[in-house]
């Protein structure tokens, strides 16, 4: 069965754009709409519109509220969700939260207006004040993806952020680095907090002080990563290794290091959370933590189906392991 992901790839647009075309949830430029329609015709994509489902008395449509940034991690996560939803016979409407709680609440309200049957959400900081009450009021089945909230008894799935970060910082320490800079993600997100704890845990285990001056907020963006790396380079006792806590910040870090003529790994070792499909094509190849993003997306759909079929089932929190991809940017030989 042809999926939205395949249509998006053929049309050269995002999955969310395809979703807007087939579900009518947002205006799409005529030329883009025509490109998407041509791709659907070419591939033989079959879609059951929400309106048709409602007229039949059923609505096999779920919502996905997520940032649709160009970060490859999110793209692969959406693909995993789309494939598993299609396999289960579900339609998917995707809305962009822009990682902003207010925008997220409006986007979710729009999904609720389409009478979705369930929701997968990567919650923004502040979602518990705006979006969560709305979900509870509607008694809507939902699953948190990527950003786990341990204190809530809800279905959620993500990666082992803390353990994976501890492991990669352990590796940098084993190579002799005692001053390791960290580019941290958006404040308030569970992923940012967990990766920071992993960084601190590795220092604690090695009996090394975790100098707070070496941790800079990069806000999970390329521009933020560039700025934070530049700040670290200005320190009198600057780090000898750098850990970027997501792949957008890694791009910014590489730009700053290149501009400052700091060679990797000769002048500074570099490791990052999130793998790229092209990470081994960089020179040197990037040492990264690879998340099973497509598997996380698939498990989120499975959890949601379980919740939709059995509202009283005990909530599950699933953590999938990550894998460290050893390449040359950390200063060792690829494995």
Task: Give a written overview of the molecule.
- Helix 1 (4-11) crosses helix 2 (15-23), helix 5 (72-87) crosses helix 12 and helix 10 (222-233) crosses helix 11.
- The chain has helices spanning 4-11, 15-23, 30-43, 50-55, 72-87, 101-113, 127-137, 161-174, 190-205, 222-233, 247-259, 293-309; strands spanning 61-66, 91-96, 118-121, 142-145, 156-159, 180-184, 215-217, 241-244, 269-273, 287-290, 317-320, 323-325.
- Helix content is 44%, strand content 16%.
- It has 335 residues and is of the alpha/beta class.
- The chain contains twelve helices and twelve strands.
- Residues 49-57 have low confidence and may be disordered.
- Helix 5 (72-87) links the parallel strand 1 and strand 2.
- The two termini are 37 Å apart.
Quick synopsis:
The protein has twelve helices and twelve strands. The two termini are 37 Å apart.
List the uncertain runs: 49-57
Distance between the termini: 37 Å
Radius of gyration: 21 Å
- As a percent range, the share of helical residues equals 40-55%
Largest sheet: 6 strands, parallel
Structural class: alpha/beta
| Number of helices, counting only DSSP H or I runs of 4 residues or more | 12
Query: What strand line-up does the widest sheet have?
Result: 2-1-3-4-5-11
Query: Which descriptor suits the 3D outline?
Result: globular
Whole-number mean pLDDT: 91
Could you spell the SSE succession in H and E letters? HHHHEHEHEHEEHEHEHEHEEHEE
Count of individual beta strands:
12
């Amino acid at each position: 069965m042809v999926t939205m992901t395949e249509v998006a790839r053929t049309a050269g647009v995002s999955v969310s754009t395809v979703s807007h075309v087939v579900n009518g949830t947002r205006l799409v430029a005529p030329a883009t709409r025509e490109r998407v329609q041509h791709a659907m015709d070419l591939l033989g994509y079959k879609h059951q519109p929400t309106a048709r489902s409602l007229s039949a008395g059923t609505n096999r449509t779920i919502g996905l509220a997520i940032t649709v940034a160009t970060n490859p991690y999110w793209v692969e996560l959406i693909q995993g969700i789309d494939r598993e939803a299609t396999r289960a016979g579900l339609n998917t409407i995707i809305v962009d939260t822009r990682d902003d709680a207010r925008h997220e609440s409006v986007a979710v309200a729009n999904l609720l207006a389409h009478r979705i049957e369930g929701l997968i959400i990567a919650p923004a900081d502040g979602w518990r004040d705006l979006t969560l009450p709305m979900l509870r009021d509607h008694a809507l089945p939902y699953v948190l993806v990527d950003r786990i909230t341990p204190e809530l008894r809800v279905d959620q799935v993500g990666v082992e952020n803390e353990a994976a970060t501890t492991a990669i910082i352990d590796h940098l320490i084993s190579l002799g680095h005692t001053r390791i800079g960290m580019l941290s993600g958006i404040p308030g997100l569970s992923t940012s907090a967990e990766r920071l704890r992993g960084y601190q845990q590795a220092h604690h285990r090695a009996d090394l002080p975790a100098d707070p001056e070496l941790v800079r907020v990069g806000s999970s963006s390329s521009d933020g990563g560039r700025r934070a790396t530049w700040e670290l380079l200005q320190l009198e006792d600057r780090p000898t290794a750098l850990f970027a806590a997501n792949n957008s910040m890694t791009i910014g870090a590489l730009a700053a290091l290149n501009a400052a003529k700091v060679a990797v790994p000769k002048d500074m070792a570099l490791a990052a959370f999130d793998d790229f499909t092209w990470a081994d094509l960089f020179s040197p190849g990037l040492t990264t933590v690879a998340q099973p993003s497509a598997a996380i997306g698939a498990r989120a759909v499975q959890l949601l189906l379980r919740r939709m079929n059995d509202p009283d089932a005990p909530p599950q929190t699933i953590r999938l392991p990550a894998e460290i991809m050893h390449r040359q940017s950390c200063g060792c030989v690829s494995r």
